[in-house]
Write a structure and sequence with these properties.
38% helix; globular; five-stranded mixed sheet; 117 residues; Nucleotidyltransferase, domain 5; alpha/beta
């Protein structure tokens, strides 16, 4: 029997070939990281991983860079997950307020992931 989670955030760093995923589950201090291929098979593996963790609904935050994120965003949406495509300029501006040196660290920040900032 799978446990039901109510608050989950998924940050996806999308590139042409890979999806670097960070899942923050309710009650956990640190996200679980896993890399998937940015293919239909990789998208299915991501969805299977969410299901195996008992995640029925997640809010996924992806940086909208080119077309690389479109297919995974569609797969997540079709699986009834919430998806936010983030404006890269918004992430850069948030990075400046946090004095962060890289955007990668922010993509995996629980606040960014959970709130879709």
């Amino acid at each position: 029997m799978l446990r039901e989670l109510t608050l989950c955030g998924l940050g996806l760093d999308v590139s042409k070939n890979t999806l670097n995923a960070a899942l923050l589950e309710e009650g956990k201090a640190k996200p679980a990281h896993k890399v998937f291929s940015n293919t239909a098979e990789g998208h299915e593996q991501l969805l299977a991983r969410l299901a195996s963790k008992g995640v029925q609904e997640v809010h996924a935050a992806l940086e909208a860079t080119g077309t690389w994120a479109e297919e995974v965003a569609l797969a997540l949406h079709q699986a009834r997950h919430s998806v936010s495509l983030l404006n890269p300029a918004r992430i850069h501006a948030f990075a400046r307020t946090q004095m962060a040196r890289t955007n990668t660290a922010l993509r995996f920040n629980p606040l960014v992931r959970a709130l879709g900032l």
